[in-house]
Write a structure and sequence with these properties.
single chain; alpha/beta; TIM Barrel; 21% strand; globular; binds zinc ion
Amino acid sequence: MARSVWYVPDRVFTAVDDRILEGHAVEVADGRVGAVAPVGGLPADAAVERLPGLTLMPGMIDAHVHLDLLAEGGRFEALDEEDGVLAVAVAAHARCALLAGVTTVRDCGSRGRTALDARRAIELGWTEAATIKASGPSLTVPKGHCWPFGGEVSGPEGCRRSVREHKAAGADFIKVVGSGGGTDNTYSWQPSFSQEELDAIVDEAHTLGMRVTVHCLCGEAMRRAARAGADQIEHGQFIVEGDGTGPVEPDVIDAVAAAGVAVTPTLTVALVQLERLDRAGDPVRLDRWKEMRDGWFDSARAMHRAGVTLVTGTDAGWLYVDFAALPREVAALREVGLGAGESLRAATSTASRVMGLDGVGSIAHGQRADLIGVEGNPLADVAALSRVRWVMAGGRLAGPSTM
Ligand SMILES: [Zn+2]
């Protein structure tokens, strides 16, 4: 075993529980966490690196990004380019995330092999970026929301075949577009897949050891996802016919809670969009998005109250949401009622558990040394998450000077 280094920050948040430890050091060796121990008890010959003013915590996890997309307000314009071009965009966006303290990103839809191949280049160390977990093209009905990624599929047998092909291609999980999404000829208030199709997707994925998460913008889509036994729901909104925001449907919330389905509310999308529309002076769309934001937050609040596990995801790449936006989502989760420690865990250990990730999301013996140092105390001040001053990925310091 290589010689270990003990990092001594002002505070440690392990995300194993909600405590902030003071006077503690974190040992890193061979790219892994060794021990967390009181500074007074370190070996006499320990190699020590001080991180004054910082809280050391696990790298954050963004459970919902689209690394192919550009965060420039458009939709799928980037997909005019060839796959090789997109793969470079994927790696560049994953690097933006890393430098913002997001050490793992989960890509919830990208074209072909673009995210899968960039994932490989990052694993090989050819470029320094956040670890990617990727679904490949999200499964969608013919010409359904996100069809330009190439994941159109139909019928229970077609769905099973597609899941098997995703597995063979190396996808880490299955992303399903379970309703429209406000894109051309897709309707957010309508579920897309039948119950039979969703059941087939989840059954096949689980047989192959893959988790399933379902994009849902309406109550019926969530009801079907819960019934199918999906692991997770993305967005979780109650859009109604005509594209208005409907009231929270308590029976849907209860079904999601009873089925133990976790939810990624992606509230950042609304917050970023509102800022943009406000600046652009677009009162009609501003009112529409205010209504959407309020309904979206109400839904997340009701889910949290019902005991649904919430995790952080931003939908980065989509509209104007950039790949460094995750601290906003943590703050939004505080607003819908999560406690300070609970919201930090939603971005670290809870996200890792919900997504079935191995070795990331907490500071504990044997975990991958994906660590960040933030200025201040994030438990007392969530804005500290935006002050990332030190990033380590797999035991290697990351940043402009390390390449
Ligand atoms: Zn998305």
